[in-house]
Amino acid sequence: MMTVLIVHESMFGNTREIAAAIAAGLRRGRRPGDDVVRLVHVDDAPHSIDDDVDLLLVGGPTHAFGMTRPQTREDAATKGASPSREGVREWIESLTPRTNLPVVTFDTRVHVRMLPGSAARAAAKALRRKGFERAEQGETFWVEGTPGPVVPGEVERAERWGAELAARVSHGVS
Ligand SMILES: Cc1cc2nc3c(=O)[nH]c(=O)nc-3n(C[C@H](O)[C@H](O)[C@H](O)COP(=O)(O)O)c2cc1C
User: Is the pTM of this model over 0.90?
Assistant: First the structure.
């Protein structure tokens, strides 16, 4: 029995699409009935991680080279995104740490040459600072522009990555 919690932030829906694909891959990678995958938006995410959670995935859009901030979320909302109360940054800040919990981050961003920065990298760093000592940066998934859509093939890659994570957890490597 394996429980995976996926917490995601998404303003235009692209990271949500990726998170759902990762969840589908995780479910595919496990034996039927053997696991639970919970997909929650950061606004609805718990501030302490239940003891039954074996793996935590945290994903969000890259804004201004890192995790979103209230100002960048406002910018996104003026470009037609749905507003959200909180972002991954604020959620991590509010969390009660679980030192030994395996945590892997992911993000979405646009594929532009010389545009550095990744919400996944920033989130992993913030999580470690918060006391999640095993937090590591996972994958970036590409979108074609600020509102999306996701670059062709990325949803399938996210699903494969989810399946790989499931295999890794079930072998007890994480
Ligand atoms: C205010 C703002 C700042 C952004 N800054 C970056 C950036 O620094 N690097 C990048 O690759 N993409 C940047 N983007 C594009 C976002 O990464 C893109 O909108 C996001 O991946 C879409 O995911 P979502 O639909 O889940 O919100 C920015 C978007 C907004 C709205």
Answer: yes
Q: How far is CA 63 from CA 5, 68, 153, 163, in A?
A: 23, 5, 22, 27
**Which CATH fold would you assign to the domain 2-170?**
Rossmann fold (3.40.50)
Give pLDDT tens digits for 46-73. Answer: 999 999 999 999 999 999 999 999 999 9
Report whether residue 143 contacts ligand 1, using a CB cutoff of 6 Å.
yes
Ligand 1 centroid–CA 63 distance in Å is: 5
List beta partners, residue 38: 5
Does the beta carbon of 77 lie inside 6 Å of ligand 1? no
Binding site membership of 137 for ligand 1 (Cβ less than 6 Å)? no
46 Cα to the center of ligand 1, angstroms? 25
Express each pLDDT in 108-123 by its tens digit. 999 887 778 999 999 9
What is the three-class DSSP state of 57? strand
- Using a 6 Å cutoff on CB, does residue 68 contact ligand 1? no
Q: How many residues does the chain have?
A: 174
Å from CA of 45 to ligand 1 middle: 22
Cis peptide before 32 (omega within 30 of 0): no
Residue 81's SS3 state is coil
Q: What is the pLDDT of residue 174?
A: 45
